[in-house]
Amino acid sequence: MVIKILMLVVFFGVMIGVGLYCRKNATDVNGFVLGGRSVGPWLTAFAYGTSYFSAVIFIGYAGQFGWKFGLASTWIGLGNAFIGSLLPWLILGRRTRTMTHYLDSKTMPEFFGQRFDSKFLKILASIIVFIFLIPYTASLYNGLSRVFGMAFNIDYTVCIVVMAVLTGIYVIAGGYMATAMNDFIQGIVMLFGIVAVIAAVLNSNGGFMEAIKGLANVNDSAVSTTPGVFASFFGPDPFSLFCVVILTSLGTWGLPQMVQKFYAIKDIKAIEKGTVISTVFAIVVAGGCYFLGGFGRLYDIDVANVGYDAVVPAMLEKLPSILIALVLILVLSASMSTLSSLVLTSSSTLTLDLINGTIVKDMKEKKQVLVMRVFIVVFIVISAVIAVVQYKSKVTFIAQLMGVSWGALAGAFLAPYMLSLFFKGITKIAVAVNFVFGSVLMLLNMLTPDIFPAVLKSPINCGACAMIAGLIIVPLVSLITPKPDRARVDKIFTCFDYMETEKKKEI
Question: DSSP 3-state assignment of 360?
């Protein structure tokens, strides 16, 4: 217990210290939201990875999908690494940094507003961001509570308050730069922590080969009658596995808290180095989490009564005290890094895109920073209250909350955002149609799942379909709706002339 408390005190002290140190970088809007657009590749890559992989992944998804798919759930982690990390950096990174710098866009809604010359799109996007980031944030607290309950046997509400207050302090004090620096520290903890935990769990089951043998002997006729299916290449349900890979991997291409990392990187040359760092980080952390969860069925867990969120904590509870302490710091790191990214994204979106220039005309820069800090508090409080209500009402499946959030945000934004970076003919009406389609589809899935066919009742499957459908809807609607001002769009796309010049210099 002394080791656990000491490590937590040191961890919290470092996080707050970094926040106070970065206060000088958070005096204006550009510094508070984007770190002055001067963040290097290492900090950006770790910020991207730690925002991607939270307690939702480590506790919720690893437990649920490791139980459902067995060792095949490792494909989800590899999909996250190559589709969710490598490809966005390669395909979106340079063009995002270049165009948003040219347009001086600080948030994704602001990008849509300036790219399509539409105040309506900016406001609509900001409302969608705020609404659907809340359930995702609530899910972060849930995963954290499971591990703290295992280690300390303390009330869930205490976990929420501690995490919310400490995250709020360093984000409010230091803004994006404090978030990025803390993400780097937290990312290092996650890298070492996941490797140590996997080694310990495998060792407790007689080593890698014995663990595989034990998993191959697990049978569940309700899931599959195929012998050894939980140790097989694609598991008992390849289609559902594919949908999870799509949602958790392709989704990052349209999530504002992820894409906005490219806004802040210092130059396009740093993207190349960041691509490698981010991909390696994802292979270790995401691949490791799902690989670990794949061995969940070696443990005696009644998921029908305790839920999938109890799978990973049950695997860890008999580890040595020093490893339990490391798991605590690992899950805290994963949760706080993602929470800080979400609250900063939400507060900046509300302030810059919804209030400034719409509700309040010509808000001064210092007042914008103050309002963002206030909204960080508001957002943390709202999500914490939802997390407590969710817990008290016994709705404890983390993956459901994350599936709704990711499905709505990526379903609404992925296609319009990606296509608008590459094609001049995308229209504002097509973008608006896709915003409504993605967000309304996921709202209906959450509120009235019975109207959907069986395969789409799951928010995971529905979210994956929303993303893919957007890639069809946006081009089709753009073909039959009024074209954008050609001269204006051509002028915007001149920003890529500079990017091509810089690439030639590098070669």
Answer: strand
Hunting for tokens 């409504």 — which residue is that? 436
pLDDT for position 326: 79
Would you say the pTM of this structure is higher than 0.85? yes
The CA angle 460-461-462, to the nearest 5 degrees, is: 95
Please determine, for residue 122, whether its predicted confidence score (pLDDT) is greater than 90.
yes
Query: Burial level of 451, CB count in 10 A (0-12/13-18/19+)?
Result: exposed
Residue 507 confidence class, pLDDT cut points 50, 70, 90: very low
**Residue 428 tokens, joined:** 């504002």
What is 85-108 written as a DSSP string?
Answer: IIHHIIIIIHHHHHHHHHHT--SH
pLDDT at 506: 47
pLDDT digit string (tens) for 290-300? 999 999 888 88
HSE-CB at 11 with a 13 A cutoff on CA atoms is: 29
Query: Beta-carbon neighbour count of residue 440 at 10 Å?
Result: 14
119-152 vs 108-115: helix crossing angle, rounded to 10:
170
Q: Which domains does the chain have, with CATH numbers?
A: 2-22+38-391 (1.20.1730.10)
3-state secondary structure at position 204: helix
Mean pLDDT of 479-494: 94
Give the residue among 484, 502, 504, 496 at the shortest CA–CA distance from 102. Answer: 496
